[in-house]
Structure formats: C-alpha cells, structure tokens
Amino acid sequence: MASTSTDLLPRGCQIFTSVPDLFFIPEFVFGGLVWILVASTLVVPDNPLGWVMFVSVFCFVMTTLWFFIFACGANQGGIWPALDVFYHFIAVVMYLSASVALAQVTLSLGSVQLFTPSFLKMYRLDIAAVLAT
Known about the structure:
Elements (H helix, E strand, L loop, with lengths): L18 H4 L1 H16 L6 H27 L7 H31 L6 H16 L1
Helix pairs in contact: 2-3, 2-5, 3-4, 4-5
C-alpha cells in the first residue's frame, strides 16, 4: 500500500516552488520599502500617515511570522488554508486603504506651492511610497 501525501500547504523549501507562496518575497520587499519610505519623511498629518505606518509594520511582521510558520511546516492542519486566505485578504484590504490614505495626503501636499528642496524630497518619497503600496 503506497502512502500518499495529504499536505494541504507546502512546507520547508517547498514554499519557494509554489506560485502563491512565492508572493512572500514581494511582500517582504514592498512592505519593508513602504515602511522605510514613509518613516523617512515628516509624518504630517499624523492620522493618515500613522495608519500607513501601522499597516506597513503590522503586515511586514505578520508576513515574516507567516513565512516562518510555513517554512517550519507548522501549517499542515485543516484550518491553515482558510487562515492563509483570510490573512492575505485582510492584508490586501489594509494595504489598499493605506495606499488610498497615502495618495490623498500626497495629493494635498502637492497643492502647496512651497517647493523647497527639502519639501520636494519628502514629496518624492511620498510618491514612491504610494507606488510601492
């Protein structure tokens, strides 16, 4: 009698061979990039940019934790596929809302006519952060 594998999700090095799990790499890169770009500018106004920072830090930490859970193979229970879909859905909604908030702040800053070199640098960093989200 041959044994069959009933693994629902990849584990260990197999996470680098499946298409959905390869998206861990862009999540690390772009999540960290948004975090760095927003943190390097003045956080004005506090409320929308605070949300953007929370989303980028939260999703970066959770993706790292999620990656290690998958790499260690602790994701082989029956509920893990549903949790995987749920986490990525929540991450998409949070990143989309952060992107909209950051774009609104960047557009409002663009209407200011004081384009000093330091302001222009922060404005360009905000534009890059919008594109990265």
